[in-house]
Amino acid sequence: MSMSSKNNSRTAEDIKREIGVSMREFTFDTVVSVSHCELSNDLSHCKVYISTFEGGEKTVAAVERLQKAEGIFKKNINARIKMRKIPELIFLPDNSLDYYDKISGIIDEINEAKS
Q1: Exposed, middle or buried: residue 50 (CB in 10 Å: 0-12, 13-18, 19+)?
Q2: ∠ at Cα 74 (44, 58), nearest 5°?
Q3: What residue spans define the domains of the chain?
């Protein structure tokens, strides 16, 4: 891992932390968290993956709400992290829990069919 990519992933973790702290200002009808952030090599944009306990539509609704508040997050990041330019924040649903549930269900069906 090069020094640049190490710094990049450290900055992505810092952004993830700051977004998590800023999300406390919001009230959701479900548990919402930042699962991970991917910062582009040129630091121009950051994909912020959001997950919810229920997944599906709840995640999509949370993502839409957070994207509308991008300015608040950028302002808070700018106050806490030293960067020349704050990246564009792109909020995306992380439905990996839905995927794991689906795979687990398929495995259970296969095991039941074998019994």
Answers
A1: buried
A2: 100
A3: 3-114
Residues 6+ apart with CB under 8 A from 1: none
* CATH architecture for the domain at 3-114: 2-Layer Sandwich (3.30)
pLDDT in tens, 48-78: 999 988 888 899 999 999 999 999 999 999 9
Whole-angstrom distance, CA of residue 69 vs CA of residue 26: 10
The rounded distance, in Å, linking the Cα atoms of 43 and 21 is 21
Q: Nearest-CA neighbor of 19 among 85, 83, 72? A: 72
End-to-end CA distance of the chain: 47
